[in-house]
Structure formats: C-alpha cells, structure tokens
Amino acid sequence: ATYSWELHALDRKSGLTKWKKQVAEGKPKHPVHPSNTFATETPVADAERVYAFFGMAGTVAAYTHAGEKVWAKDVGTFPFMAGFGTGSSPVLHDGKLLVQSFNEDAAFLLALDAKTGNEVWKAERSKGSAWSTPLVWK
Question: Does the predicted TM-score (pTM) go above 0.85?
Fold first, then answer.
C-alpha cells in the first residue's frame, strides 16, 4: 500500500485542524510490528517552526506555524530489530535538530541546522536498534 505521512496543526482551544501537510508519500521499504505504526515519532516546535521526523519514510522536515514548508531532508530508512520500526522523536538544542536512528544497518545520531536542514554533524553508531528520544544533558 502507498502511505501518506502527514503533519497536522490543531487549534489549542477547539481541537479543530488548522492545516495539514503531506510530508512524504510512498510504499514503506521495511515493515513495522503490529504494535507500532509507520508514524510513531512526535513533532517538536520552537517559536518559528514545527519539525517532524518520519523514520519509516526517512524524512525530516520543517514547517512554519502557518504550514509553509521551509525544508525537507531524506535521511534514509532502515530495518529495525524484529521489524519493530522507528520511535525516536527529534529534539531541538542550540539551533540544531537532533535526529536519532539506531537501526540494524546504519545507526547514527544526526544534527541538522534547524533553520536550513543542512547537516552540522553525524555520529555513526554501532549497528543495533533503539527507540529512545535523545536527551540533551548539560
């Protein structure tokens, strides 16, 4: 089946949809466990933008609060242990968007410039699946 990965903005008071945008579309390259979905990650926002990571689509994107796309980046999609799929949400810190994809083929922690989507640095990790969201510790 072809899937549509979407970002929805809801009104805080009414709960009604203000806007929705298709971030990615396609046939998933890897399966997910029945207890997971193809869109488990939670978006993160700052005063200017909303950032979404759809690990099973391999897409990271930034949108304004009005729903205009600022940038999108393909970071790849990879198999996870026992087909569990992804689950790590992105994190904002000091102007960087941190994206974690610890998987069975090419595990990494990626820092993107939050304004442009350009790669700032990438830390390759040992292969192996993990689903936790990064935590910034000072």
Answer: yes
